[in-house]
Specification:
The complex is a heterodimer of chains A (about 300) and B (about 270). Chain A has about 300 residues and is α+β, with helices and mostly antiparallel strands. Chain A has eight helices and eight strands; from the N terminus they run αββαββββββαααααα. In chain A, helix 1 runs antiparallel to helix 5, helix 1 runs antiparallel to helix 7 and helix 6 runs antiparallel to helix 7. The C terminus of chain A is likely disordered. The longest helix of chain B has about 55 residues. The chains are: A alpha+beta (about 300), B mainly alpha (about 270). Chains A and B meet through helix 2, helix 5 and helix 6 of A and helix 3, helix 8 and helix 9 of B.
Chain lengths: ~300, ~270
């Protein structure tokens, strides 16, 4: 009974911990300016660029340096953005379609899809902005035409590259709004379940360990020592691994340690399932609950060197 | 049984002891939940280190845990028995409070996150010595047959009140004040509590109340043994904080150990 519970909660723990890896990251929108530029883009469409200018003062030269130093994986240089823009109505003269045909409104709101070539990003120290030339741009299904953008527009952007987005968005959220997020509650459930599972596993491990140790409970410390050694060693390894896998990225990549967790926990389940635990209990236990280990009667099946607890 | 527990709870020495357990729990919560957060804040604020300031952050955090484990907990758990015998539970608790306050004040003056590594050696005292003291003191003062109840009570006070309240208050302060000031406040309050603890102990001694060490110091081989096995059990229940127990009493006096364990098991 102990052993099957032990294994069941180990498996439950694997799934709950692994669930954390699959929680969707929060999507923050970047506030960008949309400007016409003189130099053309590779596409025949009208030349334009997105600009990120931080609200307070210039872009920190450090942050700009980090953005420019960022090299996406080859083949991934095009960052796709979904933009919700609004600008003066005059900007639409080139054939842009406003979301509404309400002519009394001076502002024109339009949705746009665009791609940005990350290798062509530029930082302009004079205006303190990050310049992101558009590679392609579509309004609806139609590619935008030359001279489409007569005056700048403001856009709220959702782009595909998490490392760029991390640096050009304000990723703070208020405590109050956290409670409305699905991600928070998923994480909450994963944490509760995994901690519960791990606590049960820890306690059952001790119980099983003492059952195996029988009348030698003083040897418990020698078993327990290996848990401490494992804890220390794998903390070192996991920390180094995360840094190595996230080299050059603003957002840490934890997928490696989740994989490590699954492998180690699978080993744990495997080895635990091979433990020989004697389930027989002392007859005294029924009458005197305080002495379940006093007269172990499973000595015959007790391994000479108890396996890991 | 409840009467015995009630009179135990009315003993001033026990109240002081439980208070210390809550205080240390609150400090431990700050370390568990917000130390790494503080390190990340420090790395973000480093102006001279422009590019890749956080490239090594997780490595540093892993190293910090490694130092806590191998440099702090392992040796101190190993020698906690001898140390407790030498200085007694009262002074051990004062030492824990003092070390924890100093540790927090050191965190609050950190500028370069890497200097956290030597500070982590304090873990041996603030966690290793504390856990040994808590568990073995609880097993010492417990009335006959109530070892597990008292262990459970102490554990519940430490974790249920101390850790929980410490996390909540720590989170609130981190939000309002940031890491540096939070650790400074915790450190300052810790120093005050340490002073109060020393004062309370000397008052209790002067006015003849039972000291924290109680009357148990003489000839307590079995009781010490029981305490050490308790340490093992209590430490084991801190699932994520793997620790070890002293092993110097291999082979002798197993009966006491078995009794102590049995008591604990029955309660859990």
């Amino acid at each position: 009974m102990h052993k099957s519970l032990f294994l069941a909660f180990q498996v439950l723990g694997i799934f709950a911990l692994l669930g954390i890896n699959y929680i969707e990251p929060l999507q923050h929108r970047a506030q960008l300016g949309l400007y016409a530029t003189a130099n053309g883009t590779p596409s025949a469409a009208g030349a334009a660029e997105l600009r990120f200018c931080p609200g307070t003062g210039k872009l920190d030269s450090c942050a700009a340096g980090e953005i420019l130093a960022y090299r996406p994986t080859p083949g991934d240089e095009l960052m796709a953005c979904k933009l919700q823009c609004s600008g003066p109505r005059a900007t639409t003269s080139g054939g842009l379609i406003c979301n509404t045909n309400n002519t009394s409104n001076d502002n024109c709101a339009f949705d746009m899809r665009a791609t940005v070539n990350l290798s062509r990003l530029a930082y302009e120290p004079i205006d303190g902005c990050l310049h992101m030339p558009l590679h392609e741009a579509f309004v609806g299904e139609a590619p935008v035409l030359a001279g489409w953008l007569a005056s700048p527009a403001e856009c709220s952007a959702l782009c595909s590259d998490p490392n760029i987005m991390f640096r050009i968005t304000d990723n703070r959220i208020s405590d109050a709004s956290v409670l409305g997020l699905g991600q928070f509650w998923t994480f909450f459930v994963c944490m509760i379940v995994s901690w519960t599972a791990m606590t049960v596993v820890g306690n059952l491990a001790d119980t099983i360990c003492f059952q195996i140790l029988g009348d030698r409970p003083h040897l418990y410390g020698k078993q327990r020592l290996w848990a401490a050694v494992g804890w220390g060693l794998f903390s070192l390894l996991a920390g180094y691994m995360v840094d190595r896998m996230s080299s050059g990225q603003a957002v840490k990549d934890y997928s490696g340690v989740f994989a490590m967790m699954v492998v180690l926990m699978a080993c744990d389940v495997l080895f635990s399932s091979r433990l020989k635990v004697c389930e027989e209990r002392d007859r005294n236990q029924v009458t005197d609950l305080k002495l379940p280990f006093h007269h172990p009667i499973c000595r015959a099946s007790r391994p000479r060197a108890p396996p890991a607890c | 049984m409840l009467n015995e527990l009630g009179s135990l709870m009315r003993t001033p020495a026990i109240c002081v002891f439980l208070g210390v357990c809550v205080a240390v729990g609150m400090g431990t919560a700050l370390i568990w939940n917000f130390l790494f957060w503080h390190l990340e804040e420090l790395a973000d604020g480093e102006k001279d280190q422009c590019s890749g300031a956080k490239e090594w952050m997780k490595t540093l955090q892993g190293l910090a845990m490694g130092v806590q484990c191998f440099g702090g907990e392992l040796p101190f758990f190993f020698y906690s028995g001898a140390l407790l015998k030498r200085i007694g539970h009262t002074h051990a608790m004062s030492l824990v409070l003092l070390t924890m306050s100093v540790r927090f004040l050191l965190y609050s003056v950190l500028a370069n996150p890497w200097w956290v590594l030597p500070v982590e050696l304090c873990q041996g005292i603030t966690y290793g010595i504390f856990y040994s003291t808590m568990a073995s003191y609880a097993s010492k003062v417990a009335p006959p047959g109530m070892g597990s109840t008292v262990q459970g009570l102490v554990g519940a006070v430490h974790e249920g009140i101390g850790i929980a309240a410490g996390s909540l208050i720590g989170g609130f302060l981190m939000d309002r004040l940031g890491g540096t000031l939070t650790f400074r406040w915790y450190g300052a309050v810790g120093l005050v509590l340490c002073g109060l603890h020393v004062l309370a102990q000397s008052l209790m001694e002067r006015f003849g109340t039972q000291r924290l060490d109680g009357q148990v110091d003489a000839g307590d081989g079995a009781s010490a043994e029981r305490g050490m096995v308790m340490v093992a059990k209590v430490a084991a229940e801190r699932d994520e904080y793997r620790t070890i127990t002293p092993m110097e009493n291999d082979g002798d006096n197993t009966g006491g150990g078995a009794n102590g364990l049995a008591g604990k098991k029955a309660s859990s």
